[in-house]
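Catalogue entry: protein

Sequence with per-residue tokens
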Amino acid sequence: MAATTEDLHTAVDDPARRLARSVAFTGVSEARLASLHRQRQAVAAKFAAAYDRPFWRSLDLNGLSECEGVLGSTWPQSEGILSALIPPERYGVLLGMPAAVRDHELLSDVARLYGAEAFQPFTSYLRMWGTDPWTQGYVTQWNPGDVMAVGPLHGSHEPPFYVCGSDQWVAGYMEGAVRTGREAAREVLRHG
């Protein structure tokens, strides 16, 4: 069933590209929509394991890695918290694992890098961004030519259509979401 709405202003946060491919917009230029469509989301997942302490440091390791298992990379998210990305090319392997063994399999990847203490987090969390119906993916996955195709429309507005979110800023991340959200709000108020 289709619904129609008319707003004086529309502010779209990330994932703008999911919305742009799932919702039909009128009154927005074809160039704007084409730009949003070039910002494809990575079908990926994020795994985080929280430990009482950053045990990898006792091995003179900093927690940064590129991996050959299901995990693509690891990084220390905070004191004692190790995060990992399951990249698009390995997401299918993750989906093929029974849900009940996913944490153990991912912790096995971490243990190959940092030792058996990896199996002892006080908690862990797996976010399946790539199959989440609300996000339909993780950060922007830029294919060759996409950045140039998005061009000067990246992070800009077409009143009464405003785009904001982490991937509408220079480097993504939460800071980008906050900065572009505030900028979009200022622009909405300015065009009031």
About this structure: The mean pLDDT is 86.
